[in-house]
Write a structure and sequence with these properties.
The structure holds two protein chains of two kinds. Chain A is an alpha+beta fold. Chain A is about 30% helix and about 30% strand. Chain A contains twelve helices and 19 strands. Chain A has helices at about 10-15, 15-25, 30-35, 40-55, 65-85, 95-100, 130-135, 280-285, 290, 300-315, 320-325, 340-350; strands spanning about 105-110, 140-145, 155, 160-165, 170-175, 180-195, 200-205, 210-215, 215-220, 230-235, 240, 255, 260-265, 270-275, 295-300, 315-320, 330, 355-360, 360-365. In chain A, the strands form three sheets. In chain A, strands 1, 2, 3, 4, 5, 6, 7, 8, 9, 10, 11, 12, 13 and 14 form a 14-stranded mixed beta sheet that branches. In chain A, strands 16-19-18 form a three-stranded mixed beta sheet, covered by helices on one side. Chain A has a two-stranded antiparallel ribbon with strand order 15-17. In chain A, strand 5 and strand 6 form a beta hairpin. The longest helix of chain A has 21 residues, at about 65-85. By secondary structure, chain B is mostly helical. Chain B folds into two domains: about 5-100, RNA polymerase sigma factor, region 2, helix turn helix motif (Rna Polymerase Sigma Factor, Chain: A, Orthogonal Bundle); about 120-195, Winged helix-like DNA-binding domain superfamily/Winged helix DNA-binding domain (Arc Repressor Mutant, subunit A), CATH 1.10.10.10. Chain B contains ten helices and no strands. Chain B has helices spanning about 5, 15-20, 25-45, 50-65, 75-95, 125-140, 140-155, 160-165, 170-185, 190-205. The two termini of chain B are about 30 Å apart. Classes of the chains: A alpha+beta, B mainly alpha. The interface between A and B is large, with 53 and 63 residues.
Chain lengths: ~375, ~200
């Protein structure tokens, strides 16, 4: 009870909340005054602690209960926003409409198409940027996902974007994108479908180049041991420049329009623009599954649409087959990231249809179509 | 300044924390109301941009809720929140510089000066001494000030301060101790203060 009788230091008193309360608010619930007067040495100690407290005032934060309450409300709004990208649940789906940004998305393929082996002696230390260096530059608490399997894996990012990560590839990304930029780091190959948000441009750092998009889908192939990086745009506009970590990098930025491509030669730090992609053998060969599949559906059975998505993203979709057997859909999903595709499909089927994503497993719940 | 002491403490932090982990919105709100002010106060001491500080603090709480499933069970809630605010503000500083080399939270500095509880200073002798002490306190390096602030205004234990400032226990002790030691050296006018602080060395270790 009277642990204060053992107090011998100013620090003991300073750290005692009830002592502070007595000095600063004159609330003496524990009889500090009496205690102090019990002996002279103690009184001296109390006086010193008191002076220090008086000299240590911290500016008051003037917040009324009302202000705290409205801060709490805006925090719940933030939570809704975040949860929309994460745990898309029945109760929250209403909010989705607000935060999903629609609009035409560009398709960009960045591929490191070269099959030549990387010649170390041709590349000097300070012009090569490795994945690990890129990661070290970022301290936002990145999450890293590595695909060690032999099939592609789908990763969903906090902004609703999806990435189809190829085998032997890894991607680092923040759990939640904060601030005005979305930044991810790639080693290897991935197909990106980025949710459109002009206010928060999306950056992909891969080897020596930085690709900036607003909302788009594209593929990057940037293995550490290969010589070139290639960028191919299907629709929309994409900007590519070299990473500022490259010591003698130019600030040159290449803007690519639909059906244009770019090959970055790592050794020389040179960008070569390719205006006719159909005549470039390497590019033609590197087109993946997802780019070949069409997401334009015209009165197509739901089962077929889910099958297409399963093939494109290598996911497994579980849905009530009997309830949806007679459902057909007409929609265009080409520009959308995976969660957005699913959202649109669910909405089209009917109000009681929802989806949940858990890694590569997608579960659709539905009571049937309208 | 210790407003939370008078709050209803029937439900302690750890109970509320466990409840919110299993999805109890009420517990979340109670913790929010309990600590929002303290966190804003701390945030304001690290960044002059009040609106951004509010944003950071709210983001910290939002993340607590969104990631409630992966929160650790046994934490000192207040220390956890203060530390999260610090990290988030540090990140704010770095965000504009895509490839800035400084990456540690040491880059952020404790900004504000301690002031004087004028209305509690009754006589001139006290006023003079308090003014002098205040000057000494404000001349301390920012990290020592921050350690003192966290110890005596936010009520953190030394080990929590160590964790928050990302230093070992001994270093945190040193920050606190050196803070007061400097005062001891300077404040020659008060012998007892000197003696008491010097015996404080033992207390700290």
């Amino acid at each position: 009870m009277q642990k204060r009788n053992n107090y011998t230091e100013i620090e003991d008193l300073l750290a005692d909340e009830s002592f502070q309360l007595w000095i600063l608010s004159k609330i003496d619930e524990q009889g500090w005054e009496e205690w102090t007067l019990e002996n002279r040495q103690r009184a001296k100690l109390v006086e010193d602690a008191r002076l220090l407290l008086l000299a240590m005032k911290v500016p008051d934060v003037n917040l009324s209960p009302g202000e705290i309450h409205s801060a709490l409300e805006s925090t719940w709004k933030k939570i809704e926003e975040k949860e929309n990208f994460y745990n898309i649940s029945k109760s929250k789906i209403v909010y989705l409409r607000k935060y999903w940004l629609s609009g035409a998305a560009a398709i960009l393929i960045i591929s490191l198409a070269s099959v030549w082996t990387f010649k170390k002696h041709t590349i000097t230390g300070n012009t090569v940027v490795t994945y690990n260096e890129l990661i070290e530059e970022n301290n936002e608490g990145l999450v890293e996902q590595t695909n060690n399997s032999d099939i592609s894996q789908t990763i969903t990012l906090s902004d609703g974007s999806s990435v189809l990560l190829q085998p032997k590839s890894k991607l680092s990304y923040p759990k939640i994108f904060t601030g005005n930029e979305r930044k991810v780091y790639l080693s290897g190959e991935g197909f990106f479908e980025i949710s459109k948000n002009p206010k928060k441009p999306f950056f992909v750092y891969a080897n020596e180049i930085v690709t900036r998009v607003v909302g788009t889908s594209f593929r990057i192939k940037a293995y550490q041991d290969q010589q070139n990086v290639e960028v191919l745009v299907r629709t929309g506009k994409v900007r590519v420049k070299s990473n500022s970590l490259v010591s003698n990098a130019t600030n040159h930025e290449v803007v690519l329009l639909p059906n244009q491509a770019l090959r970055f030669v790592r050794k020389d730090l040179v960008f070569n623009k390719i205006t006719n992609i159909t005549k470039d053998e390497v590019l033609v060969k590197s087109v993946g599954n997802i780019e070949q599949l069409s997401f334009e559906f015209n009165d197509i059975p739901i089962a077929q649409i889910f099958e297409t998505i399963e093939q494109a993203y290598l996911v497994d979709i579980d849905y009530p087959k009997d309830k949806l057997s007679d459902c057909h859909l007409t929609t265009s999903l080409s520009d959308q990231p995976l969660p957005e595709k699913l959202k649109i499909i669910c909405k089209s089927i009917g109000n009681d249809t929802n989806f949940e994503m858990n890694g590569n497993q997608i579960t659709i719940t539905s009571k049937g179509c309208n | 300044m210790k407003s939370h002491i008078t709050n209803n403490k029937l439900l302690d932090d750890n109970t509320l924390w466990s409840n919110l982990k299993v999805g109890d919105e009420k517990s979340f709100s109670l913790l929010f109301e309990r600590y929002y002010k303290d966190l804003i106060s701390y945030g304001n001491s690290l960044s002059p941009f009040e609106e951004k500080v509010q944003d950071c603090v709210q983001d910290v709480f939002a993340d607590v809720w969104v990631y409630r499933n992966s929160l650790q069970e046994n934490v000192v809630v207040k220390a956890y929140l203060l530390s999260s605010v610090r990290k988030r503000i540090a990140r704010l500083f770095q965000r504009d510089h895509i490839f800035r080399k400084t990456t540690s939270t040491e880059a952020i500095e404790f900004l504000f000066d301690f002031s004087i509880e004028n209305e509690l200073v009754e006589d001139e002798v006290t006023a003079e001494r308090v003014l002098y002490l205040n000057k000494l306190l404000n001349d301390l390096p920012p990290r020592q000030k921050e350690a003192l602030y966290l110890r005596y205004h936010q009520g953190l234990a030394v080990e929590q301060i160590a964790e928050l400032l990302d230093v070992n226990y001994q270093s945190a002790n040193n920050l606190l101790y050196r803070g007061l030691l400097s005062l001891r050296k300077e404040w020659k006018g008060n012998l007892s203060f000197v003696l008491l602080l010097s015996s404080g060395v033992l207390q700290f270790s």
